[in-house]
Here is the input.
Amino acid sequence: MKRSIWAKRKVGLFFICPWLIGISIFTIYPFFASIYYSLTSYDVISPPYFVGIYNYKELFTNDELFWKSLYNTFYYAIFATPLGIVAGIGIALLLNLKVKGIALFRTIYYLPAIVPIVGASILWVWLLNPEFGIVNALLYRIGVKGPGWLADPTWSKPSLILMSVWGLGGAMLIYLAALQDVPQSLYESAELDGANRWQKTVHITVPLITPAIFFNLIMGLIGAFQYFTQAYIMTGGGPADSTLFYSLYLFNNAFRYFKMGYASAMAWILFVVILVCTLTVFKSSRKWVYYAGKGL
Amino acid sequence: MLPKKRNRRLLVVVSVIVLLVMGFPAMSALSGEKVKITYWHQWTGQWTPVLEDLAHRFNVACPDVQVKAVVIPQDFGRKLLTAVASGNVPDVVSLTGAENLMFAERKALVPIDEIMEPEELTEFKDWAMPVVTEVNTYKGHIWALSPYIDVESLYYNKNMFQETGLDPNKPPLDIDTLDKYAEKLTTYDAAGNIDRIGFYPSWGLDLWGTVFGGTLMKGDEVWFNKDPKILEALKWIVSYSKKYDVKKITAFESSLAQERAAALDPFISGRKAMEQQGQWVIINIANYAPKGFSYGVTPCLPYPPGGRENSLLVRSSYGALAIPKGSKHPKEGCEFALFWVGYGHERDRAITMVKGGWMPLAKSPWSQPIIRDYLSKYPEFDTFRKILFARNWTMLKTPVDAYLFDRLGAARDYARLLKKTPQKALDDAAREVQKELNRLLRKR
Here is the structure.
């Protein structure tokens, strides 16, 4: 009996072998190797040279761009993540209404999420063009002189935050699913108690979709800290370092200045930052996330 | 008994196979089979066929070697570094510019002086302009050969000069006149946005700093924040932000950001009345400019009192030909590099110039009839030739070129957007670059 189970396991293992080999070579090994490389000076061609904690020390004490990139990333995370949650829930609430053609609206709002990120970035460069862009053209119509958006250091980060709302489809879908999971009976009993629409939203809907909010908050935070592609394509870190996000600076160090050890150290700092933020959110979740059958 | 016999038979078969496999390359060499080499470059779009034609002409001229040109459109440096690290390298490459000395510093290239025979190298040096090897000389070795260098001057639109009441035969030759003309030639739309700009110093501070007579680096010391002429150049760039309103100028410049295709060049499309540009634009104008487009080129970039006439900044040249470490055919790769430069193949070099606009860095190809015809067809090209042969070049060689480029660009941005004073922007960038350089020097 035992033997036949083992024989079955062998077949199973054989079939997942490509994945196991892949993750070992391309994820697990680099993950651990980067701990070692972060303690070295390494440029790919010459052998790594052990420097101890020098890279970490340099980053914290002698690299203004490291702090600048960290500031830019926190700025983005602090604004884009909550905005994503509020806008995502807002759209999901609207798309949860029982109106004619709702399937069409849902499709329309989800569509941007499936547009490849590179294509979307190039599209937004044009939308936000200070002279020819449609955004400034619309603002001009209502008598507002639009800013320089991506070309202006004051507006470049807000521009990218604004753009992030456009791609909310994925999060919105999760909120929509959570909304549809809210028991109708709760609304009915609230109505009997005389609750209005706002009270129902605040006291029933929002508490019951907190697991979805929690999930999107964690994913949003991780995504925000790893923000890269849009900045790489749309601004290249400029103007005046205003969109030099952490991952972009890490990328530059690794693949433009070929300082792999330094970049590995940066990657580990990012890992710790994300870990601390995620654990903090997890810890706080006990106070505000309600699971059906537990808190209610 | 039987197994022994079988073993012997097996041994014979294996030996025959081994001999065949090992002897094949030697046999093919004896039978005159061509040595196949690979050439990596980055010229996309309209330039790719020119490079393919160059490879084809090499294959005809040197029948023993067959080169295959491969275009690497993006992340060239990263891909080359990975190739060198893995040992699977192309035989010859055109480097990216900013990464040339970084590759030399890390010994990812085979020095040209170790591939060429000393006499051949001496002869070659006599034939070529010194810049071909000098810009690529670092720590006592020649790491690459530059087949051309870009030369810049000021293009101006004669039609617009006439419309504005300026004499089309008297373009600005100094910075004061350039500024005055720029103001006259600038037009605005109904909303008050810049519709056409007379001139804007959109190119790097390295270029204009040198024109102003400044020095960016002195050996291993970052000098650009200490040189008053570099500061003067940056203040001049900033003066445009103040004169034209920084928001308007930024909006205008970013509206051009996407117009980098030849046909949409802002000078050709009429959005700039004057523009600093390289010699290659002549071909673009010939191919893409609207009918009746009339332009001129100033004898050299306008410069202020105390600046450099015929200034030519040569920094880690783009397209320099090098042999990566691990190349299986360095000799043949070098042979192709010499062909590209035009050594012993002057006519072919002349053809490459006519097709791609890359000016030869030796005297002899210029006397080829094909170039003489070309110069009579496009007389503006002669202006660039004269600047080149004035040889007033400033070489900028540092292994942290990519970093210097980025930080100098950021300094220009900070100052131009009025976020920092020019001196503060330069000081901050200089501190960063010096730190980076020291880090690399300490490692040695």
Notes: Chain B touches chain A at residues 75, 77-78, 81-82, 84-85, 102, 106-108, 191, 193, 247, 250-255, 257-258, 325, 400, 402-403, 406, 409-410, 413-414, 417, 419, 428, 432, 435-436, 439, 443 (CB under 8 Å). Residues 331 and 443 of chain B are 32 Å apart (CA to CA). Chain B has a mean pLDDT of 88. The longest strand of chain B covers residues 35-41.
